[in-house]
Amino acid sequence: MIVVMQQGCTDEQIERVQEAIESKPGFKAPVWRGEERSVIGVIGSIYPELQSELELLPGVVQVLRVSKPYKLAGREFHPDDTRITVRDVTIGGNEMVVMAGPCSVEGEEQMLSTARIAKESGARILRGGAFKPRSSPYSFRGMGVEGLKLLAEARDETGLPVVTEVMTAEDVEVVAEYADILQVGARNVQNFILLDEVGKLRKPVLLKRGFATTYEELLLSAEYIMAGGNNEVILCERGIRTFEEYTRNTLDLAAIPVIKRLSHLPIVADPSHGTGRWHLVPSMALAAVAAGCHGLIIEVHPNPDKALSDGPQSLTFENFQNLMNSIRAVAAAIGREVAPPVEAPTAG
Ligand code: PEP
Ligand code: MN
After folding, report:
1. How far apart are CA 241 and CA 300, in angstroms?
2. Is the CB of 238 under 6 A from ligand 1?
3. What kind and span of H or E run contains 39?
4. Has residue 167 been placed in a domain?
5. Is 239 in the pocket of ligand 1 (CB under 6 A)?
6. Is the pLDDT of residue 185 over 70?
7. Axis crossing angle, helix 215-227 with helix 255-262, rounded to the nearest 10
8. Are residues 175 and 54 in the same domain?
9. Is the Cα dihedral 227, 230, 236, 240 positive or negative?
10. Is the dihedral of CA 309, 203, 206, 337 positive or negative?
């Protein structure tokens, strides 16, 4: 349920409504202050008389039932887009933000060289996995904390904020120490213990859709994080599993406009995992931009043939630089901004 307040109502009136709600056991009343009106959420086990009780309070215009099961992640309670700012980057606004980097952190030179190219090409956030979920236990499973340190070093040199995956609730603390954005991967989208744990942070979370997760399930997973008080959730469409075998996954482009309709949270697309093949990444990246995504997350590697994970879907530096130019053109066509290339510092 939501309480819609009168235009120009006082802070005292808002507080009074909040107190009336939160005085009930187990109830929470987050306030959203919009440009025109303020709205207060009613979260708890709602009983029939509550609606008329709240309607009587001063400053209240209307009390409405929210039909969707995701109250905090949905647009009903929060009509304006959420913008999430990480250092000097804002995701969810007019800028289409590119996140780029290798699938896995493999070493200092690999990470730093990729970070430099990412920065020079206009990427705004650096990616790289230190804790890797792998289908086979014999595959490279990441450098762990050493990898986190290399990401931090690359951030210090380039100024690019870092996004990296956290796989278990126990690792949240150490990953949060190094990361600017914590990624919850496709395989963990319904790991509710992990979602609760990242919900306790006050740091952005990139929540990836699972192989077989519906839009509603994805938004309910975001709701777990938000119910813990962490409102900074960025959603990610990274492809779902279908009967098609040519592509690793089927990138569901419709997810972009659907999520934008249902939720105020930013949505980014991952054409790398969404296709599994580097030669498909540019077209799907451009299609996702045209579809209105707030950002892209793209795998880039200095030598994809030698990558310890996801080489077949990783772009070379040259392919990534070319793609960034095309991304700028498509973004400009729909009135979106993309950061310009940054000149490399001259040696000496
Ligand atoms: C990744 O980003 O490298 C990754 C493992 O992604 P996903 O969880 O989408 O498979
Ligand atoms: Mn990967």
Report:
1. 23
2. yes
3. strand 38-41
4. yes
5. no
6. yes
7. 50
8. no
9. negative
10. negative
| Per-residue tokens: 72 | 């905090």
Which residue matches tokens 């802070």? Answer: 11
Tokens of 134: 């792998």
Range of the domain at 10: 2-64
Amino acid identity at 328:
R
Rounded Cα distance between 296 and 294, Å, is: 7
Number of structural domains found in the chain: 2
For residues 32 and 45, the answer to whether their CB atoms sit within 8 Å is no
Q: Please name which of 324, 290, 313 lies closest in space to residue 119, comparing C-alpha atoms.
A: 324
189 shares a domain with 287? yes
Whole-number Å distance between alpha carbons of 280 and 295: 18
Given the structure tokens 């310890």, which residue do they identify?
A: 308
CATH of the domain at 250: 3.20.20.70
Crossing angle (nearest 10°) for helices 108-121 and 317-333: 30
CA of 298 relative to ligand 1 center, distance in Å: 11
25-39, 70-84, 92-106, 329-343: which has the minimum mean pLDDT?
Answer: 25-39
Pick the atom of ligand 1 nearest to 127's CA: 2
Residue 37: which pLDDT band, with cuts at 50, 70 and 90?
confident
Looking at 31, 64, 97, which one is the last position of a domain? 64
The contacts of residue 11 (CB under 8 Å, 6+ apart) are: none
Considering the domain architecture, whether residues 130 and 279 belong to the same structural domain is answered as yes
Residue 26 CA to ligand 1 center (angstroms) comes to 36
Give this prediction's pTM. Answer: 0.91
In contact, 4 and 62? CB cutoff 8 Å: yes
What digits encode the pLDDT tens for the residues 64-113? 988 888 989 999 888 899 999 999 999 999 999 999 999 999 999 999 99
Q: 340 lies in a domain?
A: no
Q: Which of 29, 64, 99 is the last residue of a domain?
A: 64
Asked if pLDDT for residue 348 goes beyond 60, the answer is no
- State how far the Cα of 162 lies from the Cα of 182, in Å rounded to an integer: 9
- Same domain (yes/no): 196, 270: yes
Q: What residues pack around ion ligand 2 (CB closer than 5 A)?
A: 103, 310
